Amino acid sequence: MDPTSESQPTNNEDTHSVLITHSGKSHTFTLPSTSTLSDLRLQIQSTFSISAEYQKLTAPKLGLLKDDNLPITSLPSPPKKILLIGSSNAAIQDIKLANSPAASTLRRFGGTGPIKPAKPVHRTDFTKSANESKYTFGPIRVLQHLPNPQRSETYLKKLAADPGIKAVMIKHRFSVGMLSEMDPAEHTTHESRTLGLNKNGGEEILLRLRTDRYDGYRDYKTVRKTLCHELAHNVHSEHDKHFWELYRVILKGVEEADWRHGGRTVDGGGDGGRVLWEGEERERELVEAADGGGWTGGSFVLGGGGGSGGSSSGGVEDRRSMAARAAEERAKKMKDTL
Predict the structure, then answer these.
(1) pLDDT digit string (tens) for 156-189?
(2) Which of 24, 198, 212, 315 has its Cβ near the most Cβ atoms within 10 Å?
(3) What PROSITE patterns does the annotation carry (predicted)?
């Protein structure tokens, strides 16, 4: 079936159309108004050859679509698009065949002539491959009007492929419709800077990659930490205790996967030493000294007014004082643990 064509119902009853995009291809499905999301999944399977259980659908304002009984009339109509993420049945079948006993035998004894010495065979973990395809990011979007858009694209791809990020996304079953570069000019005021933004619980995550003057890029681990913050907003929209608990679990999981750079051992540095995570060590300083109450909604805002409303003329000095106190507290804790 032509993926750019339009599916039509077989009768004259009332209909509803939805526009599905997948891997750069679009298809408009027109179904009876009485249809549900489950009926749409069957049409998608017929057109894109992706089984219903491997389909991840993300709609504007609705986020990830999970309820198969959802009426199709609840979905946005064209030109609004619904993003489809998933591996085709053919790709999944190839993975299954590659792991089959018959394929292993052919690899070992195939061909004519003397039997070659057996070589170690790398076996694909089908469950891991399926999860990586299911719990991942959708398309990457960068700002083409700014200098070096290729560097921004490389930066976002590195974040999406980061072993720690991939591990926590699979563990917590996170799917993000789009990973985008944030324009600093649109999210900067005299009082604050927005470092990250999560739209509609994972429909899109935007990250501030560039410095305010566009002449450089921010530290990778700092941006990765912001991404951890925004991933926690896939579950919790407010910055309550449940959000912070999940955020710290995500951050620790990412840093554990990056053990060479994410943490260091204290109490002698041996196997029995306690691991001190950089995220744990710096979180208090970041929130108390820099944030000033600027964590709002689904975004990570650096700066901003305090809880009593707005910023004062002494705001910079206050933050410096708090930073100094936080540094003193960390130094004292480090001394106590040594």
Answers:
(1) 999 999 999 999 999 999 999 999 999 888 877 7
(2) 198
(3) WLM
